[in-house]
């Protein structure tokens, strides 16, 4: 009549006193059979004294007998929570590894009552407990595991800082017939029954990472915290959004470089869905950077490697992958036209639920929108500062070659440098 406890600190085998304490032994074995003790924590560990467990709530106030447990499963509240303890005077706490039922003194009359909680002694000759608790078993294997339990660090209430749990229970011998209504669960529970905030039993609190990996993890956590903050203030649609992989950011442009110029230059790498030089919202002047969206990520990668530091309109441009997600916010707008989900494709930035595709130049021209807004709003058509009505009328000029060396006017503002 033995039970094997597989704990987070090693295995423990307990032999039961089934003849001297049949009620306590039957209660213990049947609770083991229904996986009642699985993933229970040792919630009270006193060095060189005892280690207590068997309470699913890990508070010292929970637990019940097997008969009360089965009755509660069928909705019967007539069965008492505890049973009368079987205190045998000849069974004493004389040696380490003695297993006893904890007795609740406030119930069950003068003798109190027993439920599911039990403890294992961690030292010899603890006469203080004799006659007060039910000794019903002894540890016959796994004393070294008890040594590990005895050495754990605890708080002022005796709760280990790092959880010590009963991972699994195996009944080696059971002489008692099952009570009416007892059904063995198909599998062991996978979640602890209590809501512990301690260090997990399978977590190494002293583990250290290499300096580079630790720095990488620190930056990853800091980025996640910053993203969550930006989501809360509304700058990001959601914290785990990532920049698109098919959009390039081009800066250090000449102020005279137009959308058409960049599209012509970059179109040799693949199909361009949108190309826009970002302009000042008020004046319409070029801010000397642009976003170019390709149909495929591979085309954007090829353009990134080939166009780095290339001379365009007497300026050596800088090309990088876009880190902006400003365009994604349109899917969270109250405007139903902007919030419509796209029906097909992989979606912008790898998400098919962010926004309706507004990339294809042909469909945009049909609706009179050919300027592919990405960051700033374009000025009204009638504004005197619109790019089409700036100081020079470019419609009558021949198409400027990308390597033009003509002087560049400042248009009343300093050029932005990157």
From TrEMBL:
Q: Which domain of life is it from?
A: Eukaryota
Q: Which UniProt keywords apply?
A: Isomerase, Nucleus, RNA-binding, Rotamase
Q: Which residues form the PPIase cyclophilin-type domain?
A: 6-171
Q: What is its EC number?
A: 5.2.1.8
The molecule here is called Peptidyl-prolyl cis-trans isomerase
The record's principal subcellular location, in a coarse class, is nucleus
Q: Which organism is it from?
A: Boletus edulis BED1
Q: Where is the composition biased (Basic and acidic residues)?
A: 350-374
State the family it belongs to. Answer: Belongs to the cyclophilin-type PPIase family. PPIL4 subfamily.
Q: Which GO terms describe its cellular component?
A: nucleus
Q: Where is the composition biased (Basic residues)?
A: 400-418
Q: Which GO molecular function annotations are given, in alphabetical order?
A: peptidyl-prolyl cis-trans isomerase activity; RNA binding
> Record's Pfam families?
Pro_isomerase, RRM_1
Q: Which reaction(s) are listed as its catalytic activity?
A: [protein]-peptidylproline (omega=180) = [protein]-peptidylproline (omega=0)
Start and end residues of each RRM domain: 246-324
Which compartments does it reside in? Nucleus
- Report residue spans for region: Disordered: 177-198, 332-418
Per the entry, what this protein does is:
PPIases accelerate the folding of proteins. It catalyzes the cis-trans isomerization of proline imidic peptide bonds in oligopeptides.
What InterPro entries does the entry give?
A: CRIP, Cyclophilin-like_dom_sf, Cyclophilin-type_PPIase_dom, Cyclophilin_PPIL4, Nucleotide-bd_a/b_plait_sf, RBD_domain_sf, RRM_dom
